[in-house]
Amino acid sequence: MILRRSALSVAAWICCTALACSSCSTTNDAPADVGDAQIDGCEALATAYCARLDGCAPAVVFRAFGDTETCRKRVVLDCGSAIGAAGAHLQRSGLENCAEAVTTMACTDLFTGLHPSACAKPEGERISGAGCSYAAQCRSSCLRTSVSVDRWCGRCDPEPTEPECDAVAPHEFQLVKPIDVPGLSRGTDRSGCPQGLVCSGEKRCVEGAAQGAACSDTEPCLRPLVCDGGTCKKLGARAAPCGLGMVACNVYEGLWCASGRCVDIRKADEGQPCPADLGGNIPLCARSSTCVEGTCVPTKPDGAACVMGSDCLWPAVCLPDGPSGTTRKCVVAACST
Q1: Positive or negative, the Cα torsion across 53, 59, 62, 65?
Q2: Residues 60-108 pLDDT 10s
Q3: Contact between 28 and 53 (Cβ < 8 Å)
Q4: Closest of 82, 77, 68 to residue 303, by C-alpha
Q5: Shortest CA distance to 190 belongs to which of 212, 215, 157?
Q6: How far apart are CA 11 and CA 308, in angstroms?
Q7: What is this structure's pTM?
Q8: Which helix (H) or strand (E) holds 72?
Q9: Domain limits of the chain?
């Protein structure tokens, strides 16, 4: 199973490297210049997003956050970081309008990153070439230019007219992919696709096919649909038959294949054992914890010492603590210059 790798993706969403900007602003709470009204907007958006994510993909909520309340708190933290990011102009009214639209988002839109028009970002101040962590900082978009497990870097730049993409792992294992909060987008990955598009077998960003539509390697389905026999279908439901050559089980809903049927994935909380079963399947560790030597090892709290990005809980990342860079801490960061 690839599930245990998911924590790496969650933790790798925020910072800037020296290639894009000379410094980062960091915080463990909302920035001091973020007003109560804006935080109210963050609360509304976080509540709506986490509820919708739990409705579409409860396994994502469990894997990334453990529960919806932790999801809400972490999204509020990310929202505060976005509001305080240099050049961004996010306001309470816009966040609340976005929150209302999120409540009715289709799951395919949530997974593909096709955000409601109400969540469109206000134009930011940063010009082309400037460092960015959020699209809202830029006049155009924020394109990611350097990614590792513990750093995030971007530059303000227009979206490419003919975007290319890298082939991705089977989408049914990308439990962290949906963590792209409408209204707080971190922009487009140069190795990924702009919002609303999916990567084809030809490594081109194209519009995904809907349920029941024809599909192929060059005409992929919208997430979380799967192409089976030339037609886009839903992933396997609970008790559905599964196996080699059959539709995969809906891992987003917390299902995997065992003894020829889609059954509930075994789950484990932080600190609990996570032994593999006879089929080699490893339990889903909660709250981005990682299964190491048979135990779900918890992530570090914000401000704690860390070694790599997977040590931290999104939206925190593992960054050097001080100019020497000899020690590192889990912090929430946004490019400031």
Answers
A1: negative
A2: 999 999 999 999 999 999 999 899 888 999 999 999 999 999 999 998 8
A3: no
A4: 77
A5: 157
A6: 9
A7: 0.82
A8: helix 68-84
A9: 3-199+299-335
